[in-house]
Structure formats: C-alpha cells, structure tokens
Amino acid sequence: MLPTCWYLYLLECTDGSLYTGITVDVERRFLEHLSGKGARYTRSHKPIRLVGLRLFSSRSEVLRAELAIKRLPREKKLAALRSPSFFGKADVHNDSYNTTKRSHHVNKSELIEAISKEADLTKADAERALSATIGAVVKAVAKGDTVTLVGFGTFKSSKRAARIGRNPQTGKELKIAASTVPRFTAGSAFKAAVAGKKAAKKK
Fold first, then answer.
1. Mean pLDDT of all residues in the chain?
2. Predicted model pTM
3. How far is CA 98 from CA 5, 78, 179, in A?
4. Counting CB atoms within 10 angstroms of each CB, which of 31, 32, 85, 163 has the fewest?
C-alpha cells in the first residue's frame, strides 16, 4: 500500500544554494543526501541543514508543489514554502507542517553580514573567513577527526547502522546501507545562551 503522506523539503547546501525534494521519510532522505546517495545535485553541493518542509496528502499533490517551488528563484523558495496560500487550499494537507514558521532561520548572507559587523570586516572578508571555517571543519570531520570549539560545541563523525527504509517513489521496502554521518554536540556555553542562562564558571 502506498504511503498517504508526502513531504516537500528544502535543504541548504554549503554553497548557499537550496535543494528541493520530496520524500515520505525526511530523516532517512536527509541522511542519504549527506552520504552522497540522495541525488546528483547534492553529491556536488553538500547539504548542511534542513531549512523547511511541508506535508501533503498525496504524491500527485507534492509533485505539483515541488515543480512550483523549483521554478522560483532561490530567494523566493522559502517564502513560498511558508505561505499558507501559495499552493492553494486543495493541495495542502490540513496538518501541513513547516519548520520555518517556528522561528526565523538565519541564512548564509545574513550570517556573513553579522560577522562583518561584529568583527569589523568587509563582507568579502567575512565570507572568506566563514567559508574557510566551514571548509576546515568539514574536511577534518570527513577525515575522522573531532573538532572541538570550547563553549560552542563539538563536530565529529558517527557510524549509522544499516536499516530498512522505504522507496519514496514506490513505497516498497529497501535496505539502507550503513553510513558515516556528521554529528554536532552543543557546548555548555552555547546551551546556556539558548536557555537564557549564564554559563557556570569553572573553579
């Protein structure tokens, strides 16, 4: 029996581009993209995070929505995904969910602007610094190293065991091979800042 719920999702890639896809299992599909098995585009444009998703009641509806989103320029994709009227009442499932409506997601250009102001750098210098930092972390973790930024957090790789999933096109079971995926664990100062508390000082 075919699955009744389909997700339209957007991924942000390391170069700032957005990838649009559909699936019945968002977590599994995201991990496939990370492992290089998700799509041709994400093999050369590595995804770094899920920036939005929306639930549809049928495959035909999500395919129409995917086509509509893909026709838009990058800067309008997220706005369209957030819009309650973009897809039309007939297309969107009543329980549609969008990760972007809970809070504002800072994109790469906004982060570059913030770095530029905080560090008193030109935007070009801030972009180079950010790209170099991300690149260094990705390369280190890809080699199996652990990157620890005290107070901020730790980046490392983790083994994911083989498991059974479902083909998003047919709904049939498929074997998902074991893979190595990146993990991030927030540091104490980061956790405290998010919680609105001051980090405890070490004695």
1. 80
2. 0.46
3. 14, 10, 28
4. 85
pLDDT in tens, 131-177: 899 989 999 999 999 999 998 999 999 888 887 776 655 667 777 78
Determine the Cα–Cα distance for residues 50 and 21; give it in Å rounded to an integer.
Answer: 11
What are the chain's domains?
Answer: 6-101 (3.40.1440), 106-138 (no CATH), 146-197 (4.10.520.10)
Give the model confidence (pLDDT) of 191-201 as tens digits.
Answer: 888 887 665 55
Among 1, 35, 8, which residue's Cα sits nearest to residue 176?
Answer: 35
Q: Hey, which residues does 160 pair with through a beta bridge?
A: 179
Alpha carbon distance 11, 13 (integer Å): 6
